[in-house]
Write a structure and sequence with these properties.
The protein is α+β, with helices and mostly antiparallel strands. It has helices at residues 32-62, 64-71, 73-76, 90-100, 152-162, 166-193, 195-203, 209-233, 240-250, 318-327, 382-394, 401-428, 449-461, 463-478, 484-489, and strands spanning 105-110, 119-124, 130-136, 141-146, 335-337, 345-349, 360-365, 371-376. The chain folds into 3 domains: 32-62 and 157-234 and 403-489, no CATH class; 73-150, no CATH class; 258-379, no CATH class. It contains 15 helices and 8 strands.
């Protein structure tokens, strides 16, 4: 009989396994999710170190008024005594500083922020070094001095600004900040698109699922605040900030609230919130305006800082300036910039730490004691008003304790994200060498014109991001994909 059964087929040979670390997940070559994840992953190499520095130094800066008095109680604390129950005139305190530091130039004084604190005089030494001199306002005794840049908060400020590395450090911080903006945006995309996958992994008890979920939740909460902090910090950057300021001044505006008429500017890093302190060496939009000056009498007799001396005809001093500012309604405690020249003025800056809209400076004639001019928030260009309010929120001081603790929690959240991100990679890292275990995917640019427009616009608005992105793309196309070992190491598609 004829056998009607189909002939048996030869067994299919097994597919050889792919090399370790080179496995390509299904659909990873063009998936937008994996492509975004890949950019988020590699951006962290630049962003995480920068954000760790910014968040840690920002946290220190927030608590500077609590930390510094504890670290330097011998300089910053002063109590009344039975013989001296009241604070003495600032002219007497100024004379004590000049007696203790005869070769120094006194730049400004800052009234005690609260009871039991010393008066702070900022001086410039003959070698150009800036120092803060602390005076007991009751005993009129110089308690000592220190370089404000060497304090904990002073060091934090310098690291926060440019890693204490000048223009190179400033460029690194700006580059990290630009990519941090990209990282925050991509993080939101991953959080929203990956929520189902995270829930599925959490239900299955997958190793690292809980950490991944916490990283996403904290990132989602912190992300908007981080974006605000990054954008509000860009005006300080050496490239973006300088270019935007130049553009603003060419249009008759300005990013900054600096009163160009002040003959001197307080430089102490113990109170960087002063209206003048963020705009050193930055041109003012209204440079054609009149600079307030004192009317110099025919015989000044070598007037110095508004103090009386042989042959002098001036009648005003620092106490006069303080009295005038109080009469004009400025909030205390004041900061007083002293005249730097014979025709200079006393510039009294009112307290506006908790309300940038209260920023106001009164310029007082050093001879007659009359008000030469005033300058305040209402006189700022519209752009400068926005920046001033942004600075207040950035530094956690505009809305009282709400913004203070909000900024503190923001710093802690950023630190948490910077730690958990690398920890997630460490847990899923390849067991063998040959790959960094980066997500594999290509941006579907050809099929997503909106995505292309968005990337180009971001590159134009953030030139450091655009230039670095172009460099990375060229490196990827011309080098990494052409060298098999590098392509495997970076998990290129």
């Amino acid at each position: 009989m004829t056998d009607l059964r189909a002939p048996e087929r030869a067994p299919t040979p097994p597919t050889p396994p792919r090399p370790p670390g080179r496995t390509r997940p299904k659909g990873s070559g063009s998936g937008l999710f994996r492509a975004v994840w890949r950019w988020h992953f590699f951006a962290s190499f630049v962003v995480v170190p920068v954000l760790l520095v910014l968040a840690t130094t920002g946290l220190i800066y927030l608590f500077r008024f609590e930390l510094e008095p504890m670290l330097h109680p011998d300089l910053m604390k002063a109590e009344p005594s039975a013989t001296q129950p009241a604070a003495q005139p600032y002219s007497a305190q100024l004379a004590a500083v000049r007696s203790a530091y005869p070769d120094a130039t006194v730049v400004s004084l800052a009234e005690p922020r609260e009871e039991g604190r010393s008066t702070v005089f900022s001086v410039t030494m003959p070698d150009g070094e800036g120092r803060d001199v602390f005076v007991d306002p009751f005993a009129v005794e110089v308690l000592g001095s220190m370089d404000p840049d060497t304090t904990l908060s002073g060091t934090a400020v310098r690291l926060h600004a440019d890693l204490m590395a000048g223009r190179v450090g400033d460029a690194v911080m700006e580059l990290g900040a630009c990519w941090a903006i990209v990282m925050a945006v991509t993080g939101y995309y991953l959080f929203l698109r990956g929520r189902r996958a995270r829930k599925r992994l959490a239900r299955s008890g997958r190793k690292g699922a809980k950490l991944r979920g916490r990283h996403g939740v904290v990132g989602a909460v912190v992300g908007l605040g981080l974006l605000f902090l990054l954008v509000s910090g860009l005006p300080w950057t050496g490239f973006w900030g300088a270019q935007v300021q130049s553009l603003a001044t060419s249009q008759g505006s300005s990013l900054w609230s600096t009163d160009h008429g002040a003959a001197s500017s307080p430089l102490s890093t113990l109170d960087e919130s002063l209206p003048h302190s963020h705009a050193q060496d930055i041109p003012w939009a209204q440079q054609k305006g009149d600079v307030p000056t004192s009317e110099v009498p025919e015989d000044t007799g070598g007037a110095r800082g508004g103090e009386h001396g042989e042959g002098e005809v001036n009648v005003a001093n620092v106490d006069t300036a303080v009295a005038v500012a109080e009469r004009e309604g400025l909030r205390r405690p004041f900061t007083v910039a002293l005249p730097a020249t014979d025709d200079g003025v006393f510039s009294v800056i009112g307290y506006a730490f908790d309300a940038p809209s209260d920023e106001r400076t009164v310029h007082v004639d050093r001879y007659g004691g009359q008000v030469v001019s005033t300058y305040g928030f209402d006189d700022y260009p519209a752009l400068a008003k926005v920046v001033a309010q942004g600075i207040g929120l950035h530094e956690g001081r505009s809305l009282g304790l709400w913004s203070f603790w909000g900024a503190a929690l923001m710093c802690l959240g950023v630190i948490f994200s910077c730690v958990t991100g690398p920890l997630m990679w460490w847990r899923r890292r390849p067991k063998r060498h040959g790959s960094v275990a980066a997500p594999r995917g290509r941006m579907p640019l050809r099929s997503s014109p909106v995505l292309v427009v968005g990337i180009v616009a971001l590159g134009v608005l953030l030139p450091f991001f655009g230039i670095s992105l172009l460099a990375v793309l060229l490196l990827d196309q011309l080098v990494l994909r052409r060298v098999p070992a590098l392509a495997g190491w970076f998990d290129s598609v």
